[in-house]
Amino acid sequence: MEPTAEAAARRAAFARNRSLTMTRTKRRWWRSDARALKEILSNWANVLLVTVPLGLIAGALNWTAEYVFVLNFLALIPLALILGDVTEDLALRYGSVIGGLINATFGNIVEVILSIAALLNGLYGVVAASLLGSILSNLLLVTGCSFFFGGLFNKTQKFNATGSQASGSLLFLAALGFLIPTGAALLFGSGDVDSNSDLVLGISRGTAVVLLLCYGCYLGFQLYTHTDLFEDTPEESSASLWGWRSARPFRYLTSSLTEFSKSSGLSEAFLGTIVLPIAGNACEHMTAVIVATKNKMDLSMGVAVGSSIQVALFAVPFAVVVGWITGHPFTLDFDPFSAMALMLSVAQSNFVTAGATSHWLLGVQLIALYVLLSLAYYFK
Question: Are residues 147 and 292 in contact, defined by beta-carbon separation less than 8 angstroms?
Fold first, then answer.
């Protein structure tokens, strides 16, 4: 049966239109790709995502320490921004307490794992420097930047006074917990090295247990008995977790520390206490600053100060207990300058947060103290 003239005309018109469409598509394919590329390059964080695979490749193929350190340092920045967006979503859905706690946990879990790995390898100095540096970085630099940038967008900002008081007193308790073994090593010394070691080890392990119990009480206070004093009204929102993405870049960053110190001329004390915690706390740093600019100071404080509490009351004592169980004599006997730096940092932080109100000048004060301590560690 022969097709009608009308059907043949429709098929011919369809063929012409299809041919014209394909021709236009072939001619203009590059325009859509160019627009997509422009969209990617318009955000500097998307550009830095390139350093994530490069950093992993550099670490896996054992490139020079400079390349491994720098590439993985940069790789943590876009990953931190992603975690910041996720944390804000979590806060909208579950409230600022849960959002801040989850961010602090996922930001610190990498440091806890790597600290335990270093502990089991007998690198007690690296463990002490990185954990102490993490407390200083969160307490001074992260909180200071949150106050400063939040104050630039908002003249004054308020946060929960009860939560601030509880956090400040717990941090002071943790600082005393580190100071007591350090002071005991200096003042109770009998001249016998083995006797002094046993003394400090016993005090450190007892202190670690007490601090872990205090952290459990803090969680109960926040999440159960006094939730109404901390919590904002949650809103419905979707959420996902990205905190684990920074684990491998941070591992390569840590493994290249010693070689990078030798090649750069920077001391391991400075890199371990100042530089490395800045990279490790990139998640908390970006998140706290971003939400502070949006005038969500309870969430910002929950991330920054909450992370300091988690390291001081959980990560450090947990390392002591793990060392106790595995036969590694890790103690809380920090060097006197580090113990003094921690006490001064906690005292300054309590001063600037006492009024439960922040502005950019308070942020400058916290950042200035962190710079002063950094200078001391640089020339140490």
Answer: yes
* Domain count along the chain: 1
> CA-CA distance, 200 to 215, in Å (whole number)?
22
Write down the pTM of the prediction. Answer: 0.73
Distance CA 346, CA 348 (A): 6
Spatial CA neighbour of 299 closest among 82, 97, 144 = 97
List Cβ neighbours of 68 (8 Å cut-off, separation of 6 or more): 55, 58, 59, 252, 253, 255, 256, 260
Strand ranges inside the chain, DSSP E: 157-158, 357-358
In a domain, 242, yes or no: yes
Task: Using alpha carbons, select from 59, 54, 53, 50 the residue that is nearest to residue 254.
Answer: 59
Whether the CB-CB separation of 104 and 305 falls below 8 Å is answered with no
* CATH code of 125's domain: 1.20.1420.30
Report yes or no: 285 and 107 within 8 Å, Cβ to Cβ.
Answer: no
CB 86 within 8 A of CB 284: no
- pLDDT for residue 356: 87
Other CB atoms closer than 10 Å to residue 38's CB: what's the count?
A: 9
Q: Give the separation between CA 88 and CA 85, rounded to whole angstroms.
A: 5
Residue 244 has what pLDDT?
44
pLDDT at 224 over 90: no
Binning pLDDT at 50, 70 and 90, where does residue 150 land? very high
